[in-house]
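writing this on my phone so excuse typos. first protein, seq and then structure
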Amino acid sequence: MGRWDALKPEAGGTKQSISVSSHRESRMHSMSSLTQPSAGVGRTRFPGMGRDTRLDEGRFRLDKKTRNGRYSASTACKRCSVDISAKNSNYPLGLCRMIDETSNLLETARRMGKYAVEKANDQFERSLRQMIDEFSVALFDENETSSSMAAGSASKHELFLAIPPNAKGRAIALPFKYISFIDGMQSREVEDIITLACHFVSRMIRSCEMCRGESGNMSIELSDIDLMLSLVVTSDQIASVLKRQDIADQNQMHTLEELVTLVTLMLRCLKRLLAYFRMQVKAEENAESVVRAVLLPILERTHIFHIASRSSCGQQATLEIFLLAMECTCDLTKQNQHASAMLAPLTLISDSGEEIRVSNPLRSRFLKAIHNLIMNEHDFAFLSQACLCLTQILAGIASVERGKIQCQGGKAKQLSKVAVEFDLCSLLRRIRDMAMQSHSLKYEKDGDSSSLFCHALGLLGSIAKVYPSVTASQWSLFLQEAYEGNSKKQSLLMTFASEKSSNSEENDKERIAALSATKALITVLPLQLWYPLARGQQRSRSGNLFSQVCCALACIMEGIRSLLSQRHRESSSVIVKVIELAATIVSIVPDEAEDLAGLASEVLALIGNMFVELVNGTVSCEVSSAALKAIASSAGGEINQQGQLSPLLAPARDWLCSPESDKFIICMLSLPSNSDVAYRDESDSLLSGVSDTLSSILRMAPFLPTKSAEMMRHFDEAMQEASKSDDNGVRELGAKCLNSLLHGRKEFFLCIRNKERDALLMSATLQPLLFDYLSDSKGAIQCCALSGCGFLRGSEWDYMSSNNSLDALRTILAFCSNKRKRTTNNVRAEACKSIGQICTTCVTTRGEQSQHGDFSSLSDSCVALICEEVSSSMIEAMEDGDASVRSMALFAVGNLALALSERGPDMPVSSHLLLDVCISVQHRLRDKNAKVVGNAIRSLGHLSRILFNESYSRSLPETGANVYKEITASLCGKVEAYVKDASLDSLELTWKQRLYGKKHAKGAAIALSFLLTAKISYCSQAQSSVESLIMCLGKVGTIDDRVALAALGTLTIVPVEVWRLLSMCPTLQVLLCHQWCPLFLNT
């Protein structure tokens, strides 16, 4: 006998043995009794275990209800002198030793020859069952249908946490290791063990999920190898059942239903493993072993499910399998790495090394499988889960295709067309039918119908996000078709959103789903594209497409206005969704649709009044915040990466120009100092919303503070009070609003109607406040004030610089140096950026009106002082330890040089000073930061434009020629390095290095145009420049087109004298010159 064949009690008891045949007989129990509790002392009979294998008193464990003696749990624990009684503190150690001994038995079985494997298997199986039973009795609740550990089972809870996480992980892995070892045995025996393992693993993970929050870490630690083995073994067993073809007649239906029940059990176990260890599972391996082998065959309806569907019991079992498979799919697609492995396009490498992107076959199979299930099934619970599953899959596709799909502001388009891999139009019609059918059953209080309604409309929103073009073409299914309401006809979705029922909670969920679906559908309507097409169409009886859509949107706006008018009867969550829908419609309304713009303006007035009602406490803070966001989005004013502002929408412009907006603006201005306002606990979030909304409005509508005398007075008082506040947030709000207003005045000064009132407000209040904010102790406020100084107009600088006084400029220059105490990197960088903008304003023009109505009349002597002060400060700032400060210092120098070149030929600046600046900028070409190098290239181009021209070159010292040569060599080096890297396709460079290399080459090619047009005495240095540029043209098709165009543009403006000096060029270069440079042919 083996070491597990007989166990002795420590005191009193007789020797008892276990019959191996009893195990064989116990494994033949029917699958219908898997979860039935055994008769006896209230303990659970585990699946596949007969009465002889129960661990009773005197055999394997000590019954906790009788304490007649002390018994060992196993001979292994006995050898280690570990008492495994429930009250012994060493009990966890005994369980761990039991796991070790069981593992040793399995390893022994692996090493034994095939003739001795049968005996080793019997010994290990008894040990495995003993371990599982000991864990179950000690740790789990007796009722298997309840939670794994009862709330009052404090001792079990503490004991479970006392067992090391790695020990629990090894206990989970042991059954799967055994299954992989005995895979060649009879299927019935393997099914018995997999059933036992799945029950054990599910209960272990349920217990760990309950303990995870208190333990502070993972309650189970499973190695990557053991985890993958567990997943693979479970998946293989499921796949083997799915592939069985030997059960196809009605007589074997009972056996088939048992197999389906087994699949359900294994799928539950698989779902728990994937959910608990989702961050540890390797995505690529999981896609092959689990997704391709198990989930997809189930969703695609394999042969066994067609047979099982013949009986009602089989239908119910297969339905649960489908639901579990879809739940597993949802859990996986929520993780980015798994979503990429399942849904992202595949990249293949051809024999020539070229990357080829192909569609992911898993993605296509998933979409088609779920599409077929939705189209062919009728059970509401099943359809609800299918819609949710497809929604999650589409969300994963949107994540992996990020950057390729864009639908915003009524200009929906697909930048890189996402292939439609199933019949999308039929699915949209099916969604409409499901929504109508489930909505018609709302009075029956059917939970499945309500769930289906919400999930179906949620699926509509996901489809609109991933496939905007196709969804927009089917807009009439949901927006145009009339649906009989209470007293009038409305669009289908707005009918859903408007109807109320007695069950307010369920009804709110359905209405929110309808409003969200309407928003998603309206977002993809390309009205800006449809309007030009509509002008060329003849009006039909029902109107052209553009007018039809506008009529549908007008109907929706009427519904929105009705809901907002009755906002006190609605829940806050519904009103928030209504406001978001209104903001979406406002964002897509074209200027040509005047009637629709008028309705949108009225709706904005209603939304603004909601914020006004916040003072009286009649609306919630949530609704007020949503109202602020909606108005901010319609006001525009967001700055993109290119420095451009999003436009002020026509409905918002009409509303802001009307007196109806005054109360809203005044309420926002008075909010920081209003002590009577409700929801003071939410003051921080409200203050942030007010700051963002006011900033957007003032940036795009700078006429607002001076629209009326009353508005001007309120604005003046609000700015004064904000600057004196002890609250940092209030002072920052004031500085931010002031900065936005100055920005708007700079860009849209001509739209300010009352110029006298604006000048008075600026000189009396805003300008002094701006420089007061510079002395604030908070860095963010200083940054806002410095940015505002950069937006001051030329006339204001004329006033501050009267009598050649540069005190205001020197105040800003002081912030550019790191010698100033308590000056942060952000403050210094913002100060340098502001200096660059000031140079553009003050140096460029001399009393001539610019395109923004701005002008400056500073004298040449004052401009000379400005250039001297700025140059010396920026030379110092270019040596700053922070890259952002160096970059903005180079930006300021480039703006100064550009402004001087545009001022005229007689520039009041010393050539020696500019040469010193040029040398400092040249040193930055070797900077480690790529952005600094890019700004240095730009600044060198502008400096070369004025430094090496006819007037300045006469006064340059002898070092000027050397500086010209060094700059030319450095810029040519940037071009040649890029051409070399692009030709060799160097794998050592990162994508960011490639990107900046391309930008630097383009900038260098443009900068060389200023050097090549310099004075003739320097043209002897031009040969290397022309050779580098011609090299670019010889690599057209390999390098980026923008770099090639920049090189070609430079070559086309090279003077004829330069070409004559280049007569020693090689023949190949001459041919390229003949091909690419027409000016060379004319010489």
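second protein below, same order as before
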Amino acid sequence: MSESNLSPMHDTEMTTPTGGAGASEKGFSGGLQVSTTGMDLRHVFAGATQKTMSSLSAEPKREAGLHGPATGPGLLSNHVVTSMYTTLNFLPKFLVKSFSRVANCYFLMICILQTFPAVSITHGKPTTVVPLTFILFVAACKEINEDLARHRADDEENNTQTRVIASGGVYNETPKETKWSDVKVGDVIEVRNREPIPCDIILLETSHPEGQCQIMTANLDGETNLKTMVANADMMVADRSNMGGYAGEIVCELPNNRLLNFEGTYTRPDGEKVSLGPKNVLLRGVVLRQTDWVRGIAVYTGKETKIQMNAAEPPNKVSSVMKMSNDLTKIMFLVDICFCFMAAVVNATILSTDEAKNSCYLWGNCEYMTEDYASNKMPSGSDSVLIFFTHILIFTNFIPISLLVTIDMVKLGQAKMLEFDLEMYHEIKDHAGDVAEIPMSVKRSDLNEELGQVRHIFSDKTGTLTCNMMDFRKCSIAGKSYGLGTTAIGLSFLKRNNMQIPVVPPKPADDPDTPHVNFIDPEFSKIMKDPSHPEYRAACDFFLSLALNHDVLPEANKAGEVVYSASSPDEAALVYAAKHFGFFFKRTETGGKLVVGKRGAGGQETDEVYEVLNFLEFNSDRKRSSVILREPGTGKIVLYCKGADNVMKKRLAAQQRPDDLMKKTEEHLNQFVDDGLRTLLVGKTYIDESFYTSWKKKFTDAENSLENRDEKRMAVMELIEKDLQLMGVTAIEDKLQDGVGDALTSFRGANIKVWMLTGDKVDTAINIGYSCSLLDTGMTLLRACGEDGEMEVDHDKIPTDAAITRKISELLAQAREGDNEKALVVDTSALSAIMQYRKEKDLNEVCKLCKSVICARVTPRQKASIVDMVRFADPGVVTLSIGDGANDVPMIQTAHIGVGIHGLEGRQAVNNSDYAIGQFRFLRKLLLVHGRWNYRRTCKVCLYMFYKNVCYVVPQFLFGLYCMMSGQPIYHDFIYQMYNTMYTATPIVIYGILDRDVTKEVALANPWLYFDGQANQFMSRKIFMKWVGEGIAHASTCFWVPVFCYKYGIFDAQGLNLDLFTGIGTFTNMLAVVVASGRLYCETGYFNYPHPYIARGSCASQFFEGMVSWTGSGCTWQLISFALWWAMLKMISDFGVDGVMGTYFFEVGGSFPVLAQDLGLYMVMIWGMVFVFAWSFSLILAQDLFGTQLRANVANRMEAEKARIQKDNGGGAKVNGMLTDEDDEDFAKV
């Protein structure tokens, strides 16, 4: 069960909730600002089930709205059902869903029409029920298979065990094992380390003396970092005689979907009231970590838990190919209506002629033929209506009954081929050192062909283009830079600017090996070993601040090694750096004391205990964190602060801002940015005792405030985080993932525009763009950045309407100048102005002329807005978003295709994606190879399904010209229905799964082959009409050949002429099957046959593999279907005397041997089959696996591309992955 499908309407960047620890308030009454009436609040009585049930039943009903789904009255049970179907509702719900498809309704209508004898061609028997039932059965199996996974997940979760302390007025001294589904509102439950929380609970107490506990919220927000929650110290009473001290009452807000908000009060058994906030609540789905146990009161259960209130189905996405297929179905329905109308008109016209009036056999027995009798038998308007509906039945197959189920089967097979691709398999180590296997996974196969039409890729940077595994590389301390070498980004910067590449000395042998530290500087190593060195004290103070100012928690992994769990990889890397240089954060003790081990110059280690007075947490608004503590020995109060440079500079002491130290630090900061490193400024200040006392009172009042608590806390934090002394700068490297550069280069060659969306500074984003080949030195860089100071801004620092309009005009003119490629860089302020003043289409015109786009300093919410902006500005393009974190979910769900990357930020992006991969580099093959293959396959499947039905139905219309459009069918109805469900069913399915026109090597080496999907080269209305026209031509051949062969007829042993179904109908059916299969052979580009496998040793598995793909050509299946057809015909002829089929074939007698007597008919059939098989084998035995014509086309396009590249670049070098002269020999080998 996926409980992590959170709605993008809510902020899923779940930072540690601030405030809410609450305080004891004697005499506190109410406290909640939610409502003034008790009916709008929830009352929960700990351990008292019946009393709580009565309270819940009185809760008001609320319609769905901003608070979430409809609620009320309250639910007591914790049973959760996420499955779509149950045993009772499966049939009605499935039928409603199935008949919401127009095609199924159409064939249901056909079944109903077949029951009316006046229009039926099947003697009132609904024979279409058989194939329709089969199709519904296949669809039902697919629904059941998918829903069984939900049922299994539901059962597993509902049957998970937890422990109940108090329930139904009974207190258990020993916790009672209970299923999650049996937990009720008001129960007091106990959860132990590494167990998930079964429902939303209010913390009563924990195993920690301070009431703290650690939780991992990956199921809520996708983050694997640990967060600290707390049970208020005043929650428990000293007297444990009444229900173990748990017999209290909770008054709180009604169930809602606000993850980060909670307001309530807890009334203890002794009557004292305690205010409750979000830090006192553990939500269902979070996992308890580093805490032995916690106990709490269940306040929201089942569907009323916050995670369930936020649960949302992914948006409904339909591929452009399927949208066109639906449109083509409607067109064919109109064509069907036109044919039927023509048939009715022709029938009425012919029967109104004098010749028809005098043809007594049309009106009955000629012996009774009189003028009055003939007049009474003349066709009327009602007869024409009956003829119209009769032809509706005859032309049933104009719309392929098996179209939807065939496409579903094809896409399911394509999805399995994607998941079985070992070249998109990845392994990753988690924080605990365990190896996780990550195959490619398909979560929405309906979009397989959409992967071949992408025009825009929107990519997150951290964890998507980079590894999100941070290494401490460099630092600046007291105005001096330390750390040698450069990064891949820095190396690219040096080469781009023709600068000398520094030589990096080897790492000193006695330097320790520390995870997430890649620091080489022999001179600095000497400083850290020499206490007398003048720079030693500043360096120690710098790393001590890193060991103290953090929210890291130490934890032992399976190997017994101490690892750090932090709110971000950056934070952990900084603590590892402190450890590397001798300051080892060990643990947190009772009273909020930090124990830090210090390694002296001689290698000895001593522990120091620091009393933490306050920790001012980091969040996206503050962009900094601080710790206030008392120094051991001196007793002084010191504040350490670290944060983003643009925030920290404002908080430095006034005398430091313009001095030499700051200037040198800024130079180092810019050097680190050129290397693509993530930087933080570090500072400290000593605080006067009296000032801290007064500040502490203000901070406590802000924390206990019931209104605007967060705003008040942040305002008070500002008062103490000032007058900082600059200590230095940290520089951390986030390495690029393997293969990112090759993938981005290929995307540029495939005319796919890549947007990099990052929160980094503009210069850092540009340097990363160069290092990963998103940008290259030959590009012209266009900038629309508010920080450049070129645009007039308003009071919100957003460019004005006139300024952004003028800037876009300038960019458009620059983009049209010259022939070199362009790239655009936009920052958050410019984007805000573009969206505010509705300039999306203007920006899109600039983007169309650029190969790459970088958006810097963007917030998570802006990512989805950017995707939506492009979709709005250019509705015809296909967009793809890729990311790995919870903050990427809105972007992933907004794009046509969402791809999630398994990373270190949880599974939120993966759970909400359409496809999931392990690394960004796999996206190259997913699009250029599988995407293009699946687009071509699906288009051909849709077109072929219409073609083969036209080829089969048009002979019915032509035959009507011989029988005055009377409604006489040419085929037996059973054989008519088997055409789609049996004779031509399997080849097209295997074709849609296995066929390919080029090998993966050619597709990857020639990204421009991807243009086909972007330009809709394989499916359009023009191409559809061509296939329909071809089907009409082939249908005419299939009809006229049997007619000419039947010029003199075929007679049985008694001299009687064989009937219609055995003669023309049988022959036409056979030719239609042969021609339709032959047409598929002509489209097949990939033939695999068993001979090479036999030569390699006759391996049974290899032989079977060859036969399967050989069957894809239709050959093997066609032989089987022919044999089945003739066997069925003989069986019916010899034994079938009962039922509809028996009555048709009873007169034939020994028709099977009689058919062989007519040499002309027999030879034509044999000639047709031999021709098709010969054509198939000629393709199979061809040396080129993907066809001579295709090879010629590829070669011609390759030469054209080489000519264009040479013209643009004046040489024959390989550009954007294109094949050039030196690759011709390799291409020939492929």
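The mean pLDDT is 76. thats all i got for now
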